[in-house]
Write a structure and sequence with these properties.
With 706 residues, the chain is mostly helical. It is 55% helix and 6% strand.
Length: 706
């Protein structure tokens, strides 16, 4: 529920929040204090300054407390409307303020925003606890819950009631006062630690630079990569040199093509040693404290492990079920990864390299294998994946599947960042569906990765639909040397992935903000995103959107065939490095007792025990594992991507059994999955679409792990 989990929801990688259409007018220049008076009621981003957040948050928290107190003080008997619905609608100003703050903290963490981050986290944690641990408020909720079978509620109302009641119980409202006090201390301290962890990772990412001043050290690199590094150097005041960073669009091409092995090692170590350099940015003690606080919290709430606490509300339900899936896939993927290692080592030996393959060599020699085995060079395909063409390709898929129309707003319009693109999203009949912001490229103030969030979630209030305002944030290759942004195929699938999250928000058709959009179990939320990746790689679809940026020519059949033939290329590596991170996450969160943790040893011993080969490191080493240590978002939940992978592969086969754009299948997916938010049990949603539970075989076929 939004009321109790406000802090964790807005800090999660998929940021969601509700916005009130009207606010009390107040003199002064704080844009949060009055009605926005902007097109489509989007936040007036250009007017918002760092100094506005704290006063707005304080006022919004006071309003929220007053709304909650009014519910408690209501002399009428507790009812679904005056208690459960009133709670769902309370705190709308706070949600809108914090949705802007946390979205920009992740995407544009300026000095002013970061300076107040610790204080914001502490205040939000305390405010959330004031509500979720309030026994008088819970008493009213409990009265309604205990008579739920006599209230004649529909499915969505029943889900909101269950969600609200469980939110209180799982927050610890029924505990003795001393235990509540302990939980408050834990929650406050964890908010501080989350902020410290993420701040350190951002600073470490910006701190490391591989500076090259000898052109011979650029051997093997494509001209576009060299040009990008020169522009980066110029931006940093080092004109005439070349700079590579640990941002993925800069780092991965270097690892893939640079002939200088010692420089590949230097750059890769700069990446994987983030937060692990025994300095002021070190994250090891922070991790130790977070893990132990989570154990303590779980034990206070009556659970053996933190994973038990988390998974109770997920599709998986138990850690045994998670391990069962991960280990089944591990046994399939690891042997494939070892064969990939052998193929690369054979190239090294053939070239008389005189060394054993290391982790910083993997991308370089994998690229050689790809060129030898599939005659496919990534630089040959990039010209066909120009960013705006790929974006329009994703839009076209949504139009054919769901009838949506996308109209770019080119006139003056409030934007969170100067280079953001913004689109009106319309139904086939022209009715307004939402606003979509797109933010494509890295900057020093943006965290790594890609994500989708919402400045406002869809809901209904007083019978009126309030449409969402959605944002997609990525870190794609920038335009360089006079060329537009040309994406790798991995970046292309990432765009389709995040767009799938966007569709989940935009097509939401729910009454209550606490259940709308992506308010679903974490191991279900990746289904709408990952299923879209299948259209990105389909030959029929690719021929429509993959066009040469200079000639407009569609990608040749020869290249499409090469991409298709290489579809299982490096899947042993990709699956193994992911599974290592998912298993590491579970190992941290299935610990039963607080103890001293040597993070490096804990990680190394565990990954060695499951047989991870030294040439592959976990996709995220502990000290920069943002998914699980910068918030509670994916803690004991990083497995969710592969759990949802089973769903998405099985779901896409429903389309392949008919056609890519089969009208009935698309309508069923929209009505049973995308529109429903969290109003229906996740497995029931899937069965309503597919007619049965998902099967793992489609995923194994998709990844070549049969």
């Amino acid at each position: 529920m939004k009321q109790f989990l406000l802090l964790s929801l807005v800090m999660a990688l998929v940021v969601t929040a509700c916005q009130s259409p009207q606010k009390e007018e107040k003199s002064g220049d704080n844009p949060f204090f009055g009605a926005y008076n902007t097109p489509y009621n989007v936040p007036p981003f250009e007017q918002i300054k760092a100094e506005h957040y704290m006063p707005a948050m304080e006022k919004a928290m006071a309003e929220h407390k007053a709304e909650v107190q009014a519910i408690i003080s209501n002399t009428d008997a507790p009812s679904f409307e005056n208690t459960i619905v009133a709670l769902d609608q309370a705190g709308s100003m706070l949600s809108e303020v914090m949705s802007v703050y946390y979205s920009l903290k992740s995407a544009d963490g300026t000095e002013g925003i970061m300076a107040i981050a610790a204080e914001v986290g502490k205040k939000m944690s305390a405010h959330s606890d004031d509500i979720s641990l309030n026994p008088e408020l819970f008493d009213r909720v409990k009265v309604v819950y205990e008579q739920k079978d006599q209230l004649g509620l529909n499915g969505e109302q029943m889900m909101l009631l269950d969600d609200t009641y469980k939110g209180f119980v799982r927050s610890g409202v029924s505990l003795p006062d001393d235990k509540k006090a302990e939980l408050r201390e834990i929650n406050t301290r964890m908010s501080e630690l989350f902020n410290s962890f993420s701040t350190n990772v951002l600073k470490e990412t910006n701190k490391f630079k591989l500076v090259i001043d000898n052109k011979e050290d650029l051997a093997g690199l494509p001209e576009s990569v060299i040009a990008g590094a020169a522009e980066t150097a110029k931006d940093m005041g080092m004109e005439g040199k070349w700079v590579f960073t640990t941002q993925k669009p800069s780092m991965l091409p270097f690892l893939q093509y640079a002939d200088k092995r010692e420089l590949r090692e230097q750059l890769y170590k700069g990446y994987y040693m983030r937060g692990n350099n025994n300095d002021e940015l070190d994250n090891k003690k922070t991790i130790e404290e977070i893990v132990n606080l989570r154990i303590k919290k779980a034990n206070i709430l009556g659970y053996d492990t933190y994973a038990d606490y988390v998974l109770e509300e997920r599709m998986a339900k138990t850690s045994d079920k998670v391990y069962e899936l991960l280990e089944q896939l591990w046994d399939r993927a690891l042997p494939v990864a070892k064969k990939e290692r052998e193929a690369m080592q054979s190239i090294i030996d053939r070239e008389q390299g005189g060394f054993k393959l290391a982790s910083w060599d993997w991308w370089y020699y994998a690229e050689k294998v790809r060129q030898e085995k599939y005659n496919l060079d990534e630089n040959e395909i990039r010209p066909y994946f120009e960013l705006n063409n790929v974006r329009d390709g994703a839009f076209a898929v949504a139009t054919k599947l769901f009838g949506l129309q996308f109209e770019e707003i080119t006139e003056e319009f409030p934007k969170p960042y100067a280079d953001a693109q913004v689109f009106k999203v319309l139904e086939a009949d022209g009715s307004h569906k939402g606003i979509l912001y797109l933010d494509w490229h890295p900057r020093a103030t943006k965290k790594q990765g890609a994500w989708c969030g919402a400045f406002r979630k869809q809901k209904r209030k007083d019978g009126k639909n309030i449409p969402p305002v959605v944002t997609i944030v990525c870190n794609f290759s920038k335009p360089v040397a006079g060329k537009p942004a040309l994406l790798s195929f991995d970046e292309t699938t990432t765009l389709f992935h995040e767009f799938g999250h966007g569709l989940h928000q935009l097509l939401s058709d729910c009454n209550y903000g606490g259940l709308s959009g992506t308010s679903v179990p974490r191991d279900f939320v990746e289904l709408p995103s990952q299923v879209m990746e299948n259209w990105a790689s389909d030959p029929e679809v690719m021929k429509e959107y993959a066009r040469h940026y200079e000639t407009g020519e569609a990608i040749p059949d020869e290249l499409v065939t090469k991409l298709q033939n290489s579809g299982h290329f490096n899947q042993g590596f990709a699956t193994t490095e992911y599974l290592a991170a998912a298993l590491l996450d579970m190992n941290y969160h299935t610990q039963k007792e607080e103890k001293s943790i040597d993070v490096n040893k804990f990680e190394e011993d565990y990954l060695k025990s499951i047989g991870l080969i030294p040439e592959i490191i976990s996709r995220y080493k502990s000290t920069y594992f943002m998914h699980i240590f910068s918030s509670n978002g994916y803690s004991a939940g990083y497995y969710s991507y592969i759990w949802s992978g089973v769903l998405d592969a099985d779901a896409f086969e429903a389309f392949k059994e008919t056609s890519l754009y089969d009208e009935a299948t698309a309508l069923s997916f929209r009505e049973n999955i995308l529109e429903r938010g969290g109003t229906v049990d996740a497995m029931d949603m899937y069965k309503n679409f597919r007619g049965r539970e998902p099967k793992i075989e489609a995923l194994l076929r998709q990844r070549g792990l049969e």
